[in-house]
Design brief:
two-stranded antiparallel sheet; about 230 residues; mainly alpha
Amino acid sequence: MKAALLPTLMSVALIASSAMAEPPIGSRLGERTTTANQRTNYDALRTAHRLAECLYFKRGGDVRAFLAARTDADVQRYDRALSKSVECARAQLTDTPNIEGAAVLAPADVMRGIYAEAALLKMKTDDALPPLEAQPSYARDWFAVTGRPAAIDEMGACTADQNPAGIRSLLATKPESAEEVAAVKALGTTLGPCLPQGATLKANRQSLRAVLAEALYQRAVAPPPADTQG
């Protein structure tokens, strides 16, 4: 069995407002806005993270409900609510001057991880999570709605159990940075054994980061194990 993560393809549509964007002198009609649909992956990722942080600040309940959804219908419902939100439409999401707003287009599985990162950043409940002993199975109910291969999510859940500190170190880095590369390499000793037998991991860093962020978030918000002692 091979488990692969699709490439992270992200773009940001920008709406600019400046003197340069005004209709030329003497024209009756002109286009006030300009769009730039292709930006560097770094800028697109940074914008996506800022959008997620804004949405969590403004509509944290919807972000948490989106990540808590366990059916496709509920996922789509909360996704629509977040995508139609106007609270962050005019927020400063980019470093580009004279920008009024930005629309982020990201793969659904990557955006899930970015939402999870925004939630973890505010919640801080993952700070106290200890490493756990290996379990015979890492199947989780949230796997059904991520759109990822189950083996990939299983690897993420296993890593979140066994090395939560390693994931926290990864999430503390900036996307597409040298520090991120180093953090991923440091996690390698956990990722390999956590990958189900027979599976082959083919992933770029942002897809992998998204898997691990969501796995850590889902562990952080999961109810504590039931007391089995009599």
